[in-house]
Amino acid sequence: MIGLTDFTMAEARDALRARTVSASELTHAFISAIEGARCLNAFVTETPERALDMARQSDTRIARGDARPLEGLPLAIKDLFCTKGVRTTAGSKILNNFVPPYESTVSQNLWDAGAVMLGKTNMDEFAMGSSNETSHFGPVINPWRAGNSNRNLVPGGSSGGSAAAVAGQLCLAATGTDTGGSIRQPAAVSGIVGLKPTYGRCSRWGIVAFASSLDQAGPMTRTVRDAAILLRHMASVDEKDSTSVDVPVADYEEGLDGGVKGLRIGIPKEYRIDGAPPEIEALWHRGAEWLKGQGAEIVDVSLAHTKFALPAYYIVAPAEASSNLARYDGVRYGHRAANTHDLTDLYERSRAEGFGAEVRRRVLVGTYVLSAGYYDAYYVRAQKVRTLIKRDFEQAFETCDVLLTPATPGAAFAIGEKSDDPVSMYLNDVFTVPVNLAGLPAISVPAGLSETGLPLGLQVIGRAFDEATVLRAGRAIEVAAHFGATPKKWWAA
Question: Any catalytic annotation for residue 196?
Fold first, then answer.
């Protein structure tokens, strides 16, 4: 018999509508699951009382026939989204005790649709990381383990807490944010679905900023259908966000099973990189064959400037981060150093004590590339490269409808394995950062297992604001892959 935490979001929605389960029962089940899985460190803040209160209100609405689209569905929220009256830390000591007096637009959209908040998920500090090891609250542990090994693995980053919570069945779905792959990369290595929408599709208002021209919120779910459902209610135009785009939000679930017959699937040759495990190349080839077998046409395309995407990203993102993080000075809110001598000492010590090593590294890099004498040589040049990357995608989409690529260069690695090698860590985003630089939508879908039994994902990239086609192609991969593997709940043994 299926347990309550085994439901997909769509299944839970249908069960609630049929009144075969109550929102309170469903929420109780997930609260118990979270309490029994604290060793994963997926949550920074749990909100069981609020969740049960929201669930009771949902039950009342359902009973009187006034249910909203997400009524009674328990979700987790990445701790980068400000939640009114609930601590929001961005994974950092400098915001350890920050309680926002306002709600982010995305989370407010979810509550307005009837969703229930289980708590705030752990994350890399200020979303800077690819392994969820930079959090002030300690690393998140991937629910998956390799073979018969007991080594703890990373869940990917920065949305690693959300990925672990979904993969470990601690929530029906979760929100994430994606600046250079921080939804898709953790989704791939945790065996779930992660969708990065087009830049501007979801409001950034109330989301703690990392790199403002790259950040985008999106859903992290167990299935492509769940991603379609959740995105519809996360997305909206927002007058409080000048980068929010007034484009109609479709019913992404409708037409999801339309298939890929007649679609042209582009295979970018530049995504074949030296040193990638053969199983990644094999999975990519298998994915193309799956789509071809369903009636799609496979075409070769070129994204000539892809090789410059990673270095360009690690100039643009730190530059914007150094500006955004200047607001954390120990004066108005957040961590304030004690026993300081003057204002300059307060600034320096508060920031030194409040920021972790990776954040300090990126702030220093960003400040450097924006400084006099280096701005033109680094930042301006990186922005020019960004334009070329965007142009490559536009030209590719003249001959294809979506692109198919690997999501990551490998499976999850052990905690601590790459912590002392920033360049090796940054290479985990090699397949994902071009999408952010171009502002395009992309989805990671679990499609197979590595030789050691760990999940691997395939990525579908689409035209701007064409999430519907991206989801449809992702669904086709999901159907062909029959990925039914789940992590063994070793933490509950």
Answer: no
